[in-house]
Design a protein that fits this description.
By secondary structure, this protein is an alpha+beta fold. It is 38% helix and 26% strand.
């Protein structure tokens, strides 16, 4: 049973239900096509994380975006 966890930063413009549906369908289609996995048992979870809870190179994404 394949399990895909997509983690994205929570933005000022939220991800729409339609975009989430497309991500879930796309990830599922990829596993079915590339790895011949069973669509019915493929799990996809989308997690939206606050930018303060995501760090790169010792800095939060919030700090990085303020600098750019």
């Amino acid at each position: 049973m394949p399990f895909v966890n997509i983690k994205l930063t929570r933005e000022s413009t939220p991800i729409t239900p339609e975009q989430k549906k497309a991500l879930i369908e796309g990830a599922t289609d990829l596993l079915v096509k590339v790895l011949n996995k069973n669509r019915a048992t493929t799990i996809v979870i989308i997690e939206e994380l606050d930018m303060d809870n995501w760090g790169i190179g010792g800095n939060s994404v919030t700090e990085i975006r303020k600098k750019s």
